[in-house]
Design goal:
Layout lengths: L15 H5 L19 E9 L2 E8 L9 E7 L2 H7 L6 H16 L10 E3 L3 H4 L3 H8 L3
Parallel strand pairs: 3-4
Antiparallel strand pairs: 1-2, 2-3
């Protein structure tokens, strides 16, 4: 529940809730190119139950600091049902969250992803998400 969306709101946002949360990611994401592509590291840490902390960091040479983005994500019922993932299978949930972030990062810069959301919300922005992810999610 609550007011979440995986991508920053744009003009004509889905609802006022999305617009109100639009800039939660922060100003640091706006410097240089926001792209975090194949040279990024995705770290997924369990928070208990179906909640996870995700960090996406640029891979940089030693001694060079890159951008890093943090997210709080929930694997909700809709995504579990679509992927056949059991709510108590932590390794499968970790993999599902990782695959979902790989999916998102292939379509959006890391700085455009909101800091807190349920995975099924991705489907509002990318309608093929559940079908695409069902093929890639481990069971």
């Amino acid at each position: 529940g609550g007011c979440v969306a995986p991508v920053r709101a744009v003009a004509g946002s889905v609802d006022g809730c999305v617009a109100a949360r639009a800039d939660i990611v922060g100003v640091q994401a706006r410097r240089s190119h926001e792209e975090v592509g194949p040279m990024s590291v995705i770290r997924v840490e369990p928070r208990g139950g179906r909640d996870f902390d995700v960090t996406v960091a640029e891979e940089t040479p030693p001694g060079v600091s890159g951008l890093s983005f943090s997210y709080r994500v929930r694997a909700d019922d809709a995504v579990l049902a679509a992927t056949g993932t059991a709510a108590d299978d932590e390794p499968a949930l970790l993999a599902l969250v990782r695959v979902s972030f790989e999916y998102l990062l292939a379509r959006e810069p890391a700085g455009s992803i909101l800091s807190s959301f349920e995975l099924s919300v991705i489907g509002r922005y990318f309608p093929t998400y559940l079908a695409d992810i069902a093929d890639r999610a481990p069971r």
